[in-house]
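Sanity check

After download, print the first record. It should look like this:
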Amino acid sequence: VDRGARYLFVLGQDYLETTGYLRSFTTRLVARDGEWFLFDLTDGPANFQLPQMEPTFVYHCDAENLAPDGVHFLDPVSGTAFEHSNLRTDSLSKSGDYSVLLTNERPFGMTLRTPVAPGGERVRIEVWRKAGSCEEAIPIVAVPAKGVYENRARVIREEDGWQLLRLECRLDGAATGEVLELYLYNPGSGPAWFDDLSIFRYWSGKAGR
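Expected structure tokens:
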């Protein structure tokens, strides 16, 4: 856009819905043919807006609450358990008293395992990270049985040295019933603290449509 681009072609509403950064560029629809969208990038009145979808399930993990077994974190609202509570630390936190500290020796944290929804689903992960120059520390959406590993997180906000990361992706119907793994991962050389993880799942038989 800064170099003078006038139009944006997008294939598929699914791509628009799972690629949050495009929303600000997709407000002036010029033409549509099936799943093809053509948007005008110049200034002018908006004539297109994606419908806001309500998540089917929402999970939170803030490292504050432990499950009765003492080895999992617990979301007290949904009752969802997250693995690796042994990595909880009180050395830094975005909110409350605790976060998780990940290193390349202990790289996995706040892991949730659950079946992929019938017909596929959309997933959005948001989590606060404090990692200095350790940019490798990111959230992951994985379906190992299908070779799916999504890691294209982006920074959407910064506060007091913490960065809010967002990762959005879509899993198609071919992954139905397979194990969905959602976790934090730090393969880098430096430490990374994570706090206030939120997971949003959108599905209703046809990936949330």
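If your output differs, re-run the checksum step. Summary of this record's structure: The chain has one helix and 16 strands.
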